[in-house]
Amino acid sequence: YDKARTAFAKLTKMVGLSDTDQIEAMYGNAWLDEQMASAKSDKAGLEKALKGYDSLLTRVKSRKDMTDLVGKCTVGKASCLVGLGRNDEAKTLCEKAIAASQDEYTRAGAHTMLGRIMVLGAGSSGGKDLYEKALLHFLRVITLYGNAAGADEYMAESLFRAGELFNEMRPPSTESPEQKAESRKLRSYAVREWRECVQRFPNTTWGRKAAQQVN
């Protein structure tokens, strides 16, 4: 990451670089800042990445030839906001992105973020009423947008979290035959999602987490 960031920084200052290429390099820098900060739960780093995305959005929002980049920056900004605990802002941003964009990468990222926000909300409130809504967001990614170019990280997370949610939604009691059948069914759904995550993304954080659940 550090070497890649240095390379992008050099690109942004290169004499003769086109405006489009310079903007792409700036996006690379912001994305790397976000990735490094998220991995370390670095609040200052997330704030820095957030400013980078905001700066880019200001620069490209009126450019019709860069709508895909607008979507990428919007999803990246939402990810930073979630990392900073500003979930309401992130939720609004993602909902607007889904309404405004037909880009599959943007939709994959926005639905993943919305699902993540709902999982966090359910965990903080101690309730499971948001699990079903969160699951729908992750399943949209898996069935509709997960194969979009560049969306592997969102697909991997959605597969793992869908499995996690299916598992969490199992009946707390299995005294009756119906409860036992429901528990087995949801467990089979969970294992199905985890196995696909392991098969497709074995060397990612999500793939390794899924492997632990299956074994």
Brief summary:
The chain has 215 residues and is mainly α. It has ten helices and no strands.
Report on the architecture of this protein:
With 215 residues, this protein is an all-alpha fold. 79% of the residues lie in helices and 0% in strands. The protein has helices at 2-12, 19-40, 43-60, 67-83, 87-100, 104-125, 131-145, 152-168, 177-200, 205-214. α2 (19-40) runs parallel beside α4 (67-83) and α9 (177-200) runs antiparallel to α10 (205-214). It starts with a helix and ends with a helix.
Throw out a few tags for this protein.
10 helices; 79% helix; 215 residues; single chain
Beta-strand residue fraction: under 5%
Residue-averaged pLDDT: 91
Class from secondary-structure proportions: mainly alpha
Q: Determine the number of helices (DSSP H or I, runs of at least 4 residues).
A: 10
| N-end to C-end Cα span | 32 Å
General form: elongated
* Cα gyration radius (Å): 19 Å
**Poorly predicted spans:** none
Q: Portion of residues in helices?
A: over 70%
Q: Count the strands?
A: 0
Main sheet characteristics: none
Order of helices and strands: HHHHHHHHHH
